Amino acid sequence: MPARYRRPGWFTNHVFNPVVALLTRAGISVMGSRVLEVPGRKTGEPRRTPVNLLTLDHARYLVAPRGHTQWVRNLRASGRGRLLVGRRSESFTANELEDDDKPPVLRAYLKRWKVEVGVFFEGVGPDSSDEELRRIAPDHPVFRIEPFNGPGAPRPGSPQP
Question: Structure pTM?
């Protein structure tokens, strides 16, 4: 079965995402928004897209409501990225969750952003059963992210060119 992906519509591509990205680049986080920068898996060139950063039980997650997107494929390939808000930058490493570990994260994500992304979850919402959340889990990659302070990583919060 092919990996599920919901292509963004015209409004999302040409209005919503550019506005959220512009605000986030200006240092205004809209309900936890960040600009995700991940190296392209083929070119190595930085690729940027707005994302919602979820904090749950002192851990941080990136959820792909549209499914197996380009940013998901790039993050899988590199295992690292940066989150940007204004001039602040945070490097991180990412570990993808197994489907059985996703229900509490998907529930929290839907509780916070259902109005924005609920249409991509096939009628499943924050009040759905764990079985329903497990059913849709393969269609929604989830990454736990951890700060990366290794060689070549910028200090957290430092401006980047």
Answer: 0.81
pLDDT tens digit string along 89-136? 999 999 999 999 999 999 999 999 888 888 888 899 999 999 999 999
In terms of Cβ atoms closer than 10 Å to its own Cβ (0-12, 13-18, 19+), residue 2 is exposed
Burial group, residue 64, by CB count within 10 angstroms (0-12, 13-18, 19+): buried
105 vs 22, which has greater pLDDT?
105
Would strands 33-39 and 142-147 be described as parallel, antiparallel, or unpaired? unpaired
Contact of 20 with 33, CB cutoff 8 Å: yes
- Tell which CATH classification among 3.30.70.1350, 2.30.110.10, 3.60.15.10, 3.40.30.10 matches the domain 31-147: 2.30.110.10
Can you give the length of the chain in residues?
161
Domain map (residue ranges) of the chain:
31-147
